[in-house]
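Now for a specimen:

…
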Amino acid sequence: MGNLELSAMLAGIANGGAKSMVRVQGYHDRGGIQQALDMGADGVLVPYINSADEARQAVSCARYPTAGTRSVYFPQRSMNRAGLLGYAGAANDNVILALQVETDSCIKNIDEIAAVAGVDLLFLGQNNLCMSMGLYEKYKFPDMYTSPELGAATDKLRRAAKRNNVILGLFLFGTSRVGEFLEKGFPFISIGNDLHHILTQAGAYVKDLETVSQKNGSPWTRRPSALI
């Protein structure tokens, strides 16, 4: 999306009282990180982190001096409620900097990455991590998600986060494994996306229609679609 769409979404989210986190292009995306925060995002999610140096660059873009290099600009939405000193003076303590853990290199360097000052949250991306580790080639879908290799990588991430008091998060499709990851110390869990929610609910309705039709003597055959 562009900045106009993002600005409108952030305004609506803030008006409703929820918190907002924007996924930017990467640690190199200084403009995207700063603009998202200036427009009122509560935090940013930075993908494809592979090293502590990349983590430090992401932190620098999201923190005001002297903790970082984020520029200060007064007439922006983030300043509206509390003013320059009210927002900027506390932003380094309040803005959320989340890094996506989604590559084999990130797992290899996770102890150093988690120790970078200013990293608030480590977000496990199981799909990309499995791909990076070659697990899609080794296992039949969806066995890679319960493989010992992914389990070992997840445990290494958990240990590094615990040592550095960093919050853990991840993305799941559905709720079947939510309890498992809550027990593993992942309090921040994203459940599906808009397309997944639409298809899941639409599929449930279609299944109910099939059942009702069969019970009432009007059975029909579902056409092939994305719901099958």
